[in-house]
Specification:
heterodimer; A: alpha/beta; three-stranded antiparallel β-sheet; B: alpha/beta; 24 helices; 40 strands; about 20% strand
């Protein structure tokens, strides 16, 4: 029978090991991403030109100077060619913003002997790694409710810092679900957690987040024990996060029913996600983190491609 | 009490609690094991589930069994179980006669015998019956029935006797006792030996009483008999009473002071008799005075040896030279044949310049000169001194002796001789007269067929009769003897071959020689210093006991009532003269419990209707602590198992368990291969190679760089040695003094690396042994650059001091300029290596004698076992094949490399040739060369 344990509260806090793990994973992922690029060959990432003048790097057009404008904006080289004054306009370029949320509730501290690491470690590593990957690709990443969108190179350290500060300040248990604030249109959300809350709450949360048209991805981190229910004999189950105990005389008798309920729970979440055009990825801590990262990246890219198309449509 | 098992309980009532076990079984069965606590995040999903079968799983049957066994153990332990509880003897119905075989055969199990007898006497006391304890050794003493308490006291005073008693005498006493008290109960505690009377005794007591119980130990009885000191070794017969029991064992040989000299193993191989052999040098064999079977405490298992069992070493010189061509014509042939059974004969090598002296140097106790006429001056003096010091000189007449004259004869001889029965004589060959009382040959039968046809004659001086040991029927002496100093000169007036007499063909000849040889110990003891020629009684009429064995085989003062044995007594021990030594010290005669050809046989008592009881050997064993320990272990196992089942035993993970199983397996399987290895300890090919070729060796320090330089240095030195000297050494080898055998290497180079750990104690001990056995170790501290004279010791010096702590290092001195090591091949001043400033320390030579004869080279008695230098010799030697030094030298130069190599050559030559070069033979050459 596999054994399971909860991490100590202290041990579960965001720390150096998560930064290190995330950076290593992202590094490793660069090699994996060669394969990923072939899958998503058509998808480009980075800064996306908006086909109109605005803040950006690349040249868009020269336009005549309008009096009242700041003189500093005059492009003197072009203006010297004739008598008129020109202003150099650049194409408006905007990066996508991805909001990341990492569940740090008590149930995430669960780890069994079948798992490679506790769920929270896996979630933090995944979240920080995807942030690093995005920033290196030119996108902006934000920790939902904690940081503004950032594109600094040291995104992992910044995020980790923000997480640690919140953990140090927070007096109560972190929530199992993020606050239902609407995300801006065009933004994407990456929610990493075990999503063991009631499907109705999850559905409400998704709807709240996507109220302004944001898309999102749920990454469900589960322990292999939660998937397979390999218990036998006289066993007393102790709730994690939720109060309650359950004494099973013969644990193996619960297995089939539990597995059915788990599948139903998943299906409910997936339905809620699909309704808002969100995606759901199930990741087991018994598997390496790269799997989840690859899947998540592909989904992010396809989503941003779709988003770009959606944004271009009104222009053309 | 269980009849079939020797198991009893102190409180049998407690066993009733065992009935509660089924109840416990039910209780345990319905109490489930403690649930495993399992945190489970998706617990919400489980709420409200109602599985079909949710009865708690029950305690597994094996755990139940374990607990029941633990409880059963406890209950049985509380009942006070006793294994082998002493059972009460049956109470006798009539007066009880306890007949106790108390010969030596009963000694090994005496305590149990006494305890069995006591048990019966106790029973008799309880039933208020009179009793008698009758030891067999008591013989036909009248049996009086007394109070069992008194009988017990008497029993406790009994000790096993060193001889076997006469049972028939006891049976008579029993018969007469039975006439007075009818129908006695008889208990016979027998030793199981049938020494001629067991069957009859059994029948007779069976006739007396209908209630005969016999207790026998069933033990196999071992004994020694008939030790013989043969030419090849000392042989002793080992006997046992039954062809059962352990077939192998050890006979130990002890000397007079009780020190162990040797052990010999024996193996019965199913038979009842075998032989143990001590193949020792004769000097050691002659020291043996007592043989005993190890682990067998009885007088029968002890064999005492006296002077008669010693073998003498006899030097034999004969005048003949071509003995081997016609052996029957040579006197030595007859002498060898006659003496070989009881003495070792040494003959001088054919090439020996002076056979007499060489044999005397061989520590012969008796010298026999067969017809040797003239003994040369030096040999004569040596012989005279030999006789003065207690040796026996036996001479045989012959043509040489008849024509010569010397004073190493007991009586003056008439020149010429006397021929009887020859063509020119008128008398028939004479026969021997019976021996006189004063003669050591007294008592030997004189066979009729011995005739003497020729002899040398003694001058009829006064006192000749006293010197005569044997004479012809007409009174002319044939054997004369005279004391000289502490020794004895014996002259046979006839030859040792058959030309003058047929005495050498008779058994008398052997007996006479034997008597003479027996005298040798006496004379060498030097007990008395009688003047030459004085008559003396060679044997006392009777020998008083000096020390006797008790029943357990220990020597002690003889008990009262032991009678002296007559002189010449050679039978086995009897009650009136138990085994032991008789006679004065130095001349004592050993009497043993068993005669030389005696055997042991077990008695058989089938068909007599005796009740037989075994002699209980093992005492009662209280099983309580064992059972409690077992219960404790079982409960501990139960606790561990319960913990494991509820998942709280983390460390008892499968991996750990597998490790434990492997470890157990390794422990169980481990010793087998190692014992196989020790069985066949082969010589490693490396040792074989080292033994076949002389090679230089170095101690691997473990520092790779240093070891490589050392190896290169020794290779270079070996190359130079092969090129310049007659020594062609093999490739140098690295040795580990702790592991490798060092004795193959004359020279061991040991570079000191202070950073390496000290070698184990065994390595230092082996190095010390190597130095003791004549090896030389060159310690090179390689620190000549860092060391300052008078300054603190360098780390290397400290390391070396640590190493040599506890090693017996001789006194050292700086290499003196005239030390032989500086002259053995080249003339050098110092051992130079990579550096030149260091001093070589070597074993201090004896100081120059005060008369001051200046010698160019001095040497001690042996090679210095240790040389300590700091010049890094190996680095100085190391060169490439073309002779270029591999390392930069300090101060440097081609010359220094050459001098270093020369020092190395000298060093090797010194260890191989020792002080040879200090010989005066070379002094002139050395002086000449020193003058240049």
């Amino acid at each position: 029978m596999p054994l399971a344990a909860l991490l100590e509260d202290k041990a579960s806090r965001t720390g150096r090991r998560h930064q290190q793990g995330a950076l290593e994973l992202a590094q490793r992922f660069q090699r994996l991403s060669i394969a990923a690029r072939e899958i998503a060959a058509s998808v480009m990432y980075g800064v996306h030109g908006r086909r109109r003048a605005g803040a950006g790097e690349t040249f868009w057009q020269f336009r005549p100077f309008v009096s009242g404008e700041a003189a500093a904006r005059i492009d003197w080289r072009r203006s010297a060619k004739d008598d008129r004054l020109y202003v150099r306009e650049r194409e408006w370029e905007a990066a996508h913003t991805v909001f990341i949320w990492i569940c740090r509730s008590a149930s995430m501290r669960y780890s069994s002997t079948l798992a490679l690491e506790p769920k929270i470690d896996r979630a933090l590593v995944l979240g920080l790694a995807i942030a690093d990957l995005l920033v290196r690709g030119g996108e902006r990443a934000a920790l939902l409710g904690l940081t503004p969108p950032l594109s600094s190179r040291g995104i992992v350290e910044r995020f980790a810092e923000a997480l640690m500060m919140q953990e140090a300040a927070a007096s109560e248990e972190p929530e199992a679900l993020p606050a239902q604030t609407g995300l801006p249109f065009g933004a994407q959300a990456v929610l990493i957690g075990d999503f063991l809350a009631e499907p109705e709450r999850i559905s409400a949360m998704i709807e709240g987040l996507s109220s302004r048209g944001a898309r999102g991805h749920l990454v469900m981190v589960t322990d292999p024990v939660e998937e397979t229910f390999p218990f036998e004999g006289h066993t007393e189950f102790i709730g994690v996060g939720t109060p309650g105990r359950l004494r099973a005389g013969r644990a193996e008798a619960f297995r089939s029913e539990y597995l059915r309920r788990l599948a139903a729970h998943r299906a409910a979440i997936e339905r809620a996600a699909r309704k808002q055009n969100w995606t759901l990825t199930v990741h087991r801590t018994g598997r390496p983190a790269t799997e989840a990262l690859l899947a998540l990246q592909v989904k992010l890219e396809s989503a941003s491609a779709a988003l770009r198309l959606a944004q271009q449509d009104p222009q053309s | 009490m269980i009849p079939s098992l020797p198991l009893a309980f102190a409180y049998p009532a407690v066993l009733a609690a065992l009935a509660g076990l089924p109840l416990l079984y039910i209780l345990l069965r319905i109490t489930p094991p403690r649930p495993a606590l399992m945190p489970f995040p998706p617990l919400r999903l489980l709420f409200g589930l109602r599985p079909k079968d949710d009865t708690a799983s029950r305690t597994p049957w094996w755990l139940l069994l374990l607990r029941l066994a633990a409880v059963a153990c406890l209950i049985v332990a509380m009942a006070g179980p006793i294994w082998n509880a002493l059972q009460e003897a049956k109470r006798p119905v009539g007066p009880l006669i306890v007949v106790l075989d108390d010969g030596w055969a009963a000694a090994p199990s005496w305590d149990e015998r006494a305890a069995a007898a006591a048990r019966w006497l106790e029973a008799a006391r309880r039933s208020a019956q009179p009793a008698a304890a009758v030891p067999v050794s008591g013989g036909g003493r009248e049996i009086t029935f007394i109070d069992p308490d008194k009988a017990l006291n008497r029993l406790h005073a009994l000790q096993p006797q060193p001889v076997l008693g006469n049972r028939l005498a006891v049976s008579q006493a029993i018969e007469s006792a039975a006439a007075r008290y009818p129908r006695p109960a008889i208990l016979w505690i027998t030793d199981g030996l049938d020494h001629g009377d067991a069957q009859e005794f059994a029948q007779r007591i069976a006739a007396v009483s209908s209630s005969v119980t016999m207790i026998s130990s069933g033990r196999v009885i071992y004994a020694l008999a008939g030790a013989e000191n043969k030419p090849g070794g000392l042989f002793v017969r080992v006997l046992r009473s039954l062809a059962a029991g352990p077939a192998q064992g050890i006979v130990r040989a002890l000397d007079r002071r009780g020190l162990l000299l040797a052990e010999a193993s024996y193996d019965f191989k199913g038979a009842k008799e075998t032989t143990a052999e001590f193949s020792l040098p004769i000097e050691l064999r002659n020291e043996i005075s007592r043989l005993e079977i190890a682990g067998e405490r009885s007088a029968g298992a002890v064999f005492l040896l006296d002077e008669r069992a010693r073998r003498r070493r006899i030097g034999l010189v004969s005048s003949e030279t071509a003995d081997t061509a016609q052996p029957l014509l040579a006197p030595a042939y007859y002498l060898k044949k006659a003496l070989a059974p009881f003495a070792d004969i040494r003959e001088a090598k054919p090439s020996a310049a002076d056979p007499v002296k060489s044999l005397l140097n061989d520590h012969a106790g008796i010298m026999i000169l067969a017809d040797v006429g003239v003994v040369s001056g030096q040999a004569h003096d040596a012989l005279a001194r030999f006789v003065e010091d207690g040796g026996i000189l036996v001479r045989f007449a012959g043509s040489h002796l008849a024509g010569a004259s010397d004073d190493l004869v007991p009586a003056r001889l008439r020149r010429g001789g006397r021929v009887l029965g020859g063509a020119m004589s008128w008398e028939a060959p004479k026969k021997l007269a019976p021996f006189g009382r004063d003669s050591p040959f007294y008592g030997l039968p004189v066979p009729d067929e011995v005739t003497v046809s020729r002899q040398v004659l003694a001058e009829p001086d006064p006192g000749l009769a006293a010197k005569t040991w044997a004479s012809l029927s007409d009174g002319t002496p044939v054997v004369t003897a005279a004391r000289q100093g502490r020794g004895l000169i014996v002259l046979f007036h006839v030859t040792a071959d058959t030309t003058w007499s047929n005495l050498p063909l008779s058994g008398l000849f052997v007996a006479m020689l034997r008597k003479i040889v027996d005298l040798s110990e006496e004379t060498s003891e030097g007990a008395d210093s009688k003047t030459a020629g004085e008559p003396r009684a060679f044997e006392a009429a009777s020998l008083a006991p000096s020390r006797t064995l008790n029943g357990f085989g220990a020597l002690g003062a003889p008990p009262a009532g032991v009678t002296p044995i007559p002189a010449g007594f050679s039978g086995p021990a009897a009650p009136e003269h138990p085994p032991g030594y008789y006679g004065p010290p130095g001349k004592s005669v050993a009497i043993n419990a068993l005669g030389p050809d005696e055997t042991l046989s077990a008695a058989s008592f089938s068909g007599l209707g005796f009740q037989e009881e075994p002699l209980r050997v093992s005492g009662p064993i209280d099983l309580k602590p064992w059972l409690i320990a077992a219960a404790f272990l079982l409960l501990a196992a139960d606790m561990l198992l319960s913990l494991w089942m509820s998942g709280n035993l983390r460390f008892f993970a499968p991996r750990t368990a597998a490790g434990l199983v492997l470890l157990l397996g390794a422990i169980l399987a481990g010793p087998a291969p190692s014992s196989a290895e020790t069985g066949a300890a082969d010589i490693s090919p490396r040792d074989l190679g080292a033994a076949l070729t002389t090679r230089l060796a170095y101690v691997a320090s473990g520092d790779q760089k240093v070891d490589e330089i050392t190896r290169q240095g020794l290779i270079s030195l070996s190359r130079v040695l092969a090129r310049r000297t007659s020594l062609t050494p093999g490739d140098p080898v690295a040795v580990d003094p702790a592991r490798d055998e060092l004795c193959f290497y004359p020279l061991l180079y040991w570079p000191i690396v202070a950073t390496r750990p000290q070698p184990p104690q065994a390595a230092a001990a082996k190095a010390a042994a190597f130095m003791k056995q004549g090896g030389t170790i060159v310690f090179d501290t390689r620190d000549a650059l860092n060391a300052r004279p008078g300054g603190p010791p360098t780390p290397e010096a400290k390391w070396l001091r640590n190493l040599l702590e506890g090693v017996d290092v001789p006194e050292l001195e700086p290499l003196p300029p005239d030390h032989v090591a500086t002259k053995t091949f080249y003339l050098i001043d110092n051992f130079v290596g990579r550096y030149t400033s260091g001093t070589a320390w070597i074993e201090a030579l004896p100081p120059v004698p005060p008369d001051g004869t200046a010698r160019p080279a001095r040497a001690g008695d042996s090679v210095s076992p240790i040389i300590i230098t700091s010049n890094d010799l190996a680095a100085g030697w190391a060169s490439d094949p073309s002779g270029e030094s591999l390392l930069p030298l300090v101060p440097g130069g081609e010359r220094q490399h050459e001098i270093a190599l020369r020092g190395g050559v000298n060093l090797v030559m010194y260890t191989l040739t020792g002080n040879y070069k200090s010989d005066q033979v070379h002094v002139r050459d050395l002086l000449e060369r020193l003058a240049h």
